Amino acid sequence: MEIKFSTDLQTILCYARDEAMRTGSYGVGADHLVLGLLRHRDNEACRILTACGIDLDALKEAVDARVMDERPVPWQDQALIRPTRGAAALVGGAAYEALKQGGHEIFPTHLLLALVRHEKSIAAELLRSRQLDYDRVFALMRERQVIPEPTGMALPRVEELLGPLGEQLTRLYAEARSETTFFS
Predict the structure, then answer these.
(1) Could you tell me how far CA 162 lies from the centroid of its own chain?
(2) CA 44 to CA 112: how far, in whole Å?
(3) What's the CA gap between 37 and 60, in Å, rounded?
(4) Residue 77: left if φ>0, alpha if ψ -120 to 50, beta else—which one?
(5) Are 59 and 45 in contact, with CB atoms under 8 Å apart?
(6) Is 28 helix (H, G, I), strand (E, B) or coil?
(7) Residue 44 reports pLDDT greater than 60
(8) Is residue 32 within 8 Å of 133, Cβ to Cβ?
(9) Residue 92 pLDDT > 50, yes or no?
(10) Contact (Cβ atoms closer than 8 angstroms) between residue 23 and residue 68
């Protein structure tokens, strides 16, 4: 089964790579995906966070404070940047959320739904400490008609998604390093 990344999610993934480099990490983790999401800003997931009372700048600062290393990754080392298992698990969870809603394209809102369920992320911890959980986010998305009513279709297990999604995520980062593709 082929599941696609939306244009917004592709932008967020590229920003996440940049955020990993900025924070001094050779691994793009779940929190770098969140930093990429916050950097993009013009997406429904950020609007949902704001509607839930989350200050996006404060969230970014809090995540930065916990993941920042003293030195950024040098630009010439960008080819060494790789997604971590945590990032792959978060993207796998986002794919699962997309499939639950009957879609085959992952949007930033799916990433947010996966994030609030993610256990090993500083950003997820911070959101939970502000009483932001899956049910609250899901209800607001349903209320705003960001996600459709359930379709009743059978869903694959998350484990079935992680392998292909990890491969897709790695391929996306390889394309981002390609000389023929420009990513900001």
Answers:
(1) 14
(2) 10
(3) 10
(4) alpha
(5) no
(6) strand
(7) yes
(8) no
(9) yes
(10) yes
Cβ(16)–Cβ(110) below 8 Å: no
CA 3, distance to chain mean position in Å, is: 15
SS3 139: helix
How many angstroms separate the CA atoms of 176 and 131, rounded?
A: 36
Parallel, antiparallel or unpaired: strands 4-5 and 105-106: parallel
**Which phi and psi angles does 144 have, rounded to 5°?**
-85, 5
Reduced to 3 states (helix: H, G, I; strand: E, B; else coil), residue 4 is: strand
Residue of 119, 116, 118, 91 whose CA lies nearest to 105 = 91
Q: Average pLDDT over the chain, rounded to whole?
A: 85
Two structure tokens written together for 3: 């599941």
Read off φ and ψ for residue 2, nearest 5 degrees. -95, 125
Q: For the segment 100-137, what is each residue's pLDDT rounded down to a tens digit?
A: 888 889 999 999 999 999 988 999 999 999 999 999 99
pLDDT tens for residues 148-171?
A: 665 555 555 555 555 666 666 666
